[in-house]
Input
Amino acid sequence: MTIWDTIPINLIQVLEGEFGQKPFFGGEKIGFVDVALIPFYTWFYAYEKCGNFSIEKECPKIVSWAKKCLEMESVSQSLSDSQKVYEFVLAYQKKLGIA
Output
């Protein structure tokens, strides 16, 4: 078992529990918490590949929230590429000798 098997999905599930029926963390409009958390969405692909789980299956509200945020051009154009984040994770694991 590795850190990827439990920690990322457990943390995302905590956030999932905070939604209720709201489209954003603060309610009907994007707010400070959304802006602070949306950059982590670019890590989801790496979490899924390294941890062998599906965030969409485990945390559908988080995925729906991220897609809603990405509908905003200011958000979608400011995030890192998920594939590049994954490549960074692989390179870092290799450097640490845990790949």
Q: What stands out?
A: Residues 82-96 form the longest helix (15 residues). The CA atoms of residues 5 and 37 lie 21 Å apart.
